[in-house]
Amino acid sequence: MIVGIHQPNYLPYIGFFDKLKKSDIFILYDDAQFSKGDFHHRNKIRTPNGSKWLTVPVEKKLISINKIRIRNDLLIGNNKWNISHLGDIQNNYSKAPFYQKFITELENIYNEDYDFLVDLNMRLIQFLSDSFNIKTKIVCSSEFGFNSKSTSKILDLVDAVGGNKYLSGSCGKNYLEIEQFDRCGIELIFQDFKHPIYDQQYNGFMPNMTSLDALLNAGFMGDKYK
């Protein structure tokens, strides 16, 4: 059984969902430490001028992602952050082919208030995985209560869900202790993700936007996944 693990990012790019689709069970690493420079609370949408960051205002502390609170008191311009993000999505994707199919659910998500970043991110991840018709079971690492770190924690999580293969992102080659997988009898495989190209709303193709870009423009994860 193939196990994938990834931090619960905000509006993840489609490589995240490629890994999710290729896993038999997927673990959201929600008790990893929050990093303000990562994609935990931000991602990019496509605009006529290139790309734009959508950033959720959060308290920036050295604590786990699932303990990070959203700063709902902070405004973007004159609007609450969620109304601002929804407005940016509406303004930049209203003419996309699949906008009308998905905008109502997105409006429902963004019109709610969330105290914790992880609750927002998990709601969006579930919406996107459902929209991409991905059936992989998703669980959270915090459910298991492991105090181990790095490669040891990954192995603990894979073992806890009964996996015998671990699907790592390609960057895992730079930090995973590969010999530990051999000792534990867990096969280590690396994601070979090639970003699909699809028609965007504006001239030229820009990869690595939020997966909303693929969903609203292509309906799924690009032609490769239809």
From TrEMBL:
Q: Which Pfam families match?
A: WbqC (PF08889)
Q: Which InterPro entries match?
A: WbqC
Protein name (record): WbqC family protein
Q: Which organism is it from?
A: Methanolobus mangrovi
